[in-house]
Specification:
Two copies of one chain form a homodimer. Chain A is an alpha/beta fold. Chain A contains 13 helices and twelve strands. Helices cover about 45% and strands about 15% of the residues of chain A. The model of chain A has no long low-confidence stretch (mean pLDDT about 90).
Chain lengths: ~350, ~350
């Protein structure tokens, strides 16, 4: 079914049909209705590329993220999709796998009107952001979320990274930790630096000395990270508290503690930024700083549609900061007596056969 | 920078430049190189819609999945992307959120050449697959993976669902379970039915009686599922073994067991299909049937590119079945004495201050 056949079927010119399908003001409402109903009945779909050339609309937004295998980003995308769906838009998801090169390649791919707007959270390698400035210069609406480019004049949806790191570190101190390690993930991202600042300021406020040996720069190489964590936890002056700036590092720490027989929380108390669904089921359950990931995605999409619908908006007026939540569980507290009591019951049960 | 400016810059006709950029055989290699280098230098990108109209290539494939917040699907996508990247293709990810309606909407969106090929894993609601048959009729290369449509003549990349369910159920029987529940996720998907058949045949082979009360039909409504699981585990004749056909149901079961104080594995032994990264860190660690998710995605992409590059291939000759793996951990075995011993050590440590 093409325009020509549709024209024959309706006994209207191709130009009239084309305008009716584009909802042009030149065509009467009655005719538009007639054309649209017939098109639907005959299952006619415009060639999207031809139709995009004319009306310059793709009804699609792109979300660029470091990785989908991450509870924070998958929830953020679900939030963005919930909003896009209300606008009858499709969402294209692109992964950069934490690689600047891939982020540049995706940006180039999106430079010429494939999508009406872009939401992005930077890769951990991204310090030079000229590829994103180029997108903005082309007039493509752009919104940053979570991992933002400070130097680009576009809306930024963030969370209180500094404050929640401060609170998480203070929680470890209040639970008796005197030597607290910080596992960082990237030296170039502003969120990573904000998290480290929160940690350092909490130490200072409680008269604990900053010790370079306890600040471990990790990346997304799991094997290399585990080696660094193992070295840290087997060193002579090992920490008794640990703050993980992303959940992957908390999981690696659990695995290392199992391997070297270190008890969490007796030997090491742990707090981690995390949206892990199974945090409460881990052994022991993990204390987390949990971000409102779904809401961040939804807010970012909401601001993006404001830009798409009104390009005159001042982007910096659209910055939003949301709040994280410290959820205290067994990994950071000494309250393990209950667990042991229930295990004693189990033991009794075994002994009784 | 447009074609006209590029033409002026190079002192070549627009037609020559356009052909050179499309790698046409009519143009000499030397000229092509000159044009491509200048285009790169001046950062010229073809309008993708105009260029797609000419060469009918999008250099993009779509992957349609039920949800990205799922370790199996996120790994499968990573496998597909690894292959697409080698072909210099982009991957668009679409979520159906387990809804047939959304799957139909995405299929319509993709009907007119936006992508060169599609990989899909069905929503749990999809029994009528006419929207997918329509894609195939339009000549769009289509490959199914994991959750396949049996009645459509397209390549299917699957795993040994029947065999691994049989083995998982048998493992529970060998560990002393006599009353084994099966949590199913969909009555319409073939993989779900294959998993149930494996469970039933293992019961039969070991002279255990099939009991309708132990077969619980769940869906993707977490609250409703938990209620069903709670009813099952608090009933008079409650099971002592449980086989979860997807990992979400195992997680819900853990949560219910915590709530009603049922000990895993002493009161209930559990095996689940799962690619959960934290399976070994759960309390207790979870016995899983783990699928080669990354490989499934990569195989599916590999077959899809065969179809894209050679439309004459017989699709049914491309079916592939991969093998899952039973990974035995504490949730299904009685070996908890070690855990308790180490907890006794902790207890002593607490008592000693």
């Amino acid at each position: 079914m093409n325009l020509k056949q549709l024209s024959k079927e309706l006994n209207l010119s191709i130009s009239t049909i084309s305008k009716a399908l584009r909802d042009s003001a030149e065509i009467s409402i009655a005719t538009k209705k007639k054309v649209q109903e017939k098109a639907k009945e005959l299952n006619y779909h415009a060639n999207p590329f031809a139709s995009n050339l004319r009306n310059q609309k793709s009804n699609t937004i792109a979300v660029i993220i470091p990785a989908i295998a991450n509870n924070f980003f998958s929830s953020a995308i679900n939030g963005a999709e919930s909003f896009a769906q209300e606008k009858d838009y499709h969402v294209l998801i692109y992964q950069t796998h934490e690689a600047l090169e891939k982020e540049i390649s995706v940006s180039k791919h999106l430079q010429n009107g494939r999508v009406d707007g872009i939401m992005i959270s930077l890769s951990s390698e991204t310090s030079d952001t000229s590829h994103l400035a180029a997108l903005k210069d082309k007039g493509i609406p752009l919104v940053f979320f979570d991992r933002v480019a400070e130097n680009i004049d576009a809306p930024k949806i963030t969370v209180d990274d500094y404050e929640s790191s401060y609170i998480g570190t203070e929680h470890l101190i209040k639970n008796g930790c005197t030597k607290i390690a910080f596992l960082s993930i990237s030296n170039v991202l502003s969120i990573s630096n904000n998290r480290k600042r929160g940690y350092l300021d909490a130490l200072k406020a409680h008269n604990l000395i900053e010790d370079e040996r306890y600040i471990v720069d990790c990346n997304y190489d799991e094997t290399a990270n585990k080696l660094k964590i193992k070295n840290l936890l087997t060193s002579a002056n090992k920490p008794n508290g640990l703050f993980a700036s992303v959940e992957e590092l908390a999981i690696s720490t659990y695995e290392i503690c199992n391997e070297i027989n270190l008890n969490i929380p007796l030997d090491l108390k742990i707090v981690s930024f995390s949206n892990l669904q199974t945090a409460s089921l881990l052994n022991p359950s993990l204390t987390t700083i949990t971000q409102p990931a779904y809401e961040i995605g939804r807010e970012a999409a909401s601001v993006l549609f404001k830009l798409i619908e009104n390009k005159e908006i001042d982007p910096t007026s659209q910055n939003i900061e949301l709040k994280s939540k410290l959820i205290i569980r067994d990994s950071s507290t000494a309250k393990t007596v209950n667990n042991i009591a229930s295990t004693k019951k189990d033991l009794a049960q075994i002994l009784l056969g």
